[in-house]
TrEMBL record:
<feature type="region of interest" description="Disordered">
    <location>
        <begin position="125"/>
        <end position="152"/>
    </location>
</feature>
<dbReference type="GO" id="GO:0045111">
    <property type="term" value="C:intermediate filament cytoskeleton"/>
</dbReference>
<dbReference type="GO" id="GO:0005874">
    <property type="term" value="C:microtubule"/>
</dbReference>
<dbReference type="GO" id="GO:0005815">
    <property type="term" value="C:microtubule organizing center"/>
</dbReference>
<dbReference type="GO" id="GO:0001764">
    <property type="term" value="P:neuron migration"/>
</dbReference>
<feature type="compositionally biased region" description="Basic and acidic residues">
    <location>
        <begin position="132"/>
        <end position="152"/>
    </location>
</feature>
<dbReference type="InterPro" id="IPR026081">
    <property type="entry name" value="DISC1"/>
</dbReference>
<protein>
    <submittedName>
        <fullName>Disrupted in schizophrenia 1</fullName>
    </submittedName>
</protein>
<dbReference type="GO" id="GO:0060271">
    <property type="term" value="P:cilium assembly"/>
</dbReference>
Amino acid sequence: SCTMAQLRDMSRTLQDLITSENRARISVCPPPSTLRLQEQEQVLNLSIKEATAKVVMSQRLGSSLRRKVSETETQLLALHEAKLAAISGNDFSSAKELKAEMKAVYLERDRLEALAKRLHSLSSGSSQELAGMKEQRQQLRQELEQREAQHESRLKENAVKYVELLEGRLHSCGCSGLERIWEADLEVCHLFLRGLQLRTPSCSEADIEDLPSAHVGLPIPPCTKEEEDCAMLTALGGRWCPEANLQNSEFTKKL
């Protein structure tokens, strides 16, 4: 049995441990401000992935357009030589047909060059936007790492102080049952501190490499002129349909 004095001592000891500020502050969950920064980082990482995909797609489309412009130049040269040969052979009917065909190829070349120019403009804007988002992510990551380090430091400090309080009260309570409970609590605290010491920095999505440049050179399946325009505008955030007027499209408005 315990005397009244021992019961009062145990009551005070229990009260000290239960109301300990250091014990109450041992929380693995980060503070709300850190959680908000983590959410912002996740949203920003998703935006960076989308912007990176847009830049890569614009590079692929730009390469495709340049190749097609080169092909039209080659075709024009061949048509011009064929027209000269027809004229020198007095085959004016064929020369007239070749001239009409050259006119159509010139129009196609001009269309492709105009698209390439607008694509380059949008691609430059997307690249600048992507660079800005990456810089913002870097600043956010630095602030987040700083807050996480501060939180971990406070966790260690509070855990150590609570361990000291437990060790100071452990053998003075005079109750074997409470001693076993506090010994278990003390062991948990030691394991928690050991876990903090062994903890390695978490790898965020910011550490993941962007889409490899090798993807830029992936083969592009053949498609119609309208499908190419549609893909180009969609990839860069615009909207296109076959009956739309390019001058009034969302693609043009972005310029």
